[in-house]
Automatic annotation (TrEMBL):
This protein's name: ROK family transcriptional regulator
Membership in a protein family: Belongs to the ROK (NagC/XylR) family.
UniProt-listed InterPro entries: ATPase_NBD (IPR043129), ROK (IPR000600), WH-like_DNA-bd_sf (IPR036388), WH_DNA-bd_sf (IPR036390)
Listed Gene3D superfamilies: 3.30.420.40, Winged helix-like DNA-binding domain superfamily/Winged helix DNA-binding domain (1.10.10.10)
Length: 392
């Protein structure tokens, strides 16, 4: 049931936001389902649906003909033509996508590079993609924002990238730069934080209130934590940097980086080298590793999986999640021998904490960071649909 607002206008705007949030999360709901979910009466739900249709944010469809019991109820769906530009800059590529309010990825591009991308180059590529898509395959779409998933420390208050070490970006006003280049409101956050939110809302963590997410990418290992259904951000938005922890390595022969942190030892670059690849997207790397019979590939996977198990054991001991989700190359390590990873992790957990924890791989696969970036970009619209469009 929605809480009472101080004024009629506040109540209307709050109801409108809750209504759109429900449609966005579920992609489509009947008016009857929306009535039950909000606690509002049918006439109010009909009025809210009509207002959101007028704003161009939802569409109404005929009732499902297979549901014959009772009075047919029109279906309200998120408008697929309302989109955001989502991006994930990495050391080897910039991945871009247009993501609809209905959750579908309309267009996706991976722009590979041999040089480290500068912030200026990145925002120029964003503006170029936006222009090309708006004049081409997405000519009928309405772009309402830009979301960036960045592998580094991002200050939540203003989207300032404090330090993205692998990209060599420091104190970069990325949100302001993006807004100036594209003319759209922008949201910037840590890539793994956004991956955790995406998996919690739509992926392997849906319905889970306590989870830990670790993301393995070209720029290292990041993480996100969901506690009691809410993201754990920390005082400035920097929580979840699991990759910067000192790894526990039982055998000196397993160490590859003197005094290195977790992401120096459990490393995508080391897996690429073992597979004799210079660059690859996630599916290509996973296929190369799983299809290899080379001893050095097998040994490197086992070495990294053992160190990862220790890191997961520490996370379980500290945070007591019910689910641990692994994305990127960490999912590949897990899938190489799931039982071995679970056994090694449990051996380093307090028995009570390990009893109910489950390891899962990211259900959104290589789309997880883009979906997370899109969620950040959609957030202002979902919080105040009428007000956000009025100020655009």
């Amino acid at each position: 049931m929605l809480s009472a607002m101080s004024t009629v206008e506040d109540m209307r705007r709050g109801n409108l936001a809750r209504f759109l949030e429900l449609v966005h999360r579920e992609r489509a709901l009947s008016r009857a389902q929306l009535t039950a979910a909000t606690g509002l009466n049918r006439s109010t739900v009909a009025a809210l649906a009509a207002e959101l249709v007028e704003l161009g944010l939802v569409i109404e469809r005929a009732p499902d003909p297979t549901k014959r019991v009772g009075r047919p109820s029109p279906v309200v769906a998120a408008n697929p033509d309302v989109v955001v530009l989502a991006a994930n800059p990495e050391v080897d590529a910039l991945t871009l996508a247009a993501v609809g309010l209905d959750g579908e990825i309309k267009v996706r591009e991976r722009l590979e590079t041999t040089d480290l991308p500068s912030p200026e180059t990145t925002v120029a590529q964003l503006a170029d993609a936006l222009d090309r898509w708006a004049r081409g395959e997405l000519a009928g779409a309405k772009f309402v924002g830009v979301g960036l998933a960045v592998p580094g420390l991002v200050r939540a208050a203003d989207g300032l990238v404090r330090h993205a070490p692998h990209l060599r970006w420091r104190d970069t006003p990325l949100r302001a730069m993006t807004e100036q280049a594209t003319g759209l409101p922008a949201a910037v956050d840590n890539d793994a934080t956004l991956g955790a939110i995406a998996e919690h809302r739509f992926g392997a963590g849906a319905g889970v209130d306590h989870l830990v997410y670790l993301n393995g990418g070209a720029s290292g290992i990041g993480g996100g934590v969901i506690v009691a259904g809410m993201p754990l951000a920390g005082a400035s938005g920097y929580a979840g940097e699991f990759g910067q922890n000192r790894p526990g390595i039982a055998s000196a022969t397993h160490r590859r980086a003197d005094d290195g942190v977790l992401e120096d030892e459990v490393s995508r670059a080391r897996l690429l080298a073992a597979a004799r690849l210079t660059s690859a997207d996630e599916p290509t790397l996973a296929a190369a590793l799983s299809g290899s019979t080379a001893v050095d590939v097998r040994d490197e996977i086992m070495r990294q999986r053992g160190i990862l198990a220790t890191a997961l054991g520490n996370a379980v001991n500290v945070l007591n999640p019910s689910v641990v989700i692994l994305g990127g190359f960490l999912a590949t390590l897990a899938e190489s021998d799931p039982a071995a990873l679970v056994e090694a992790m449990q051996a380093q957990c307090m028995p009570a904490a390990a009893e109910d924890v489950e390891i899962r791989t990211a259900a959104l696969a290589e789309d997880r960071l883009l979906i997370g970036a899109a969620e950040a970009a959609f957030a202002p619209l979902l919080a105040d649909p009428a007000g956000t469009l009025a100020s655009a």
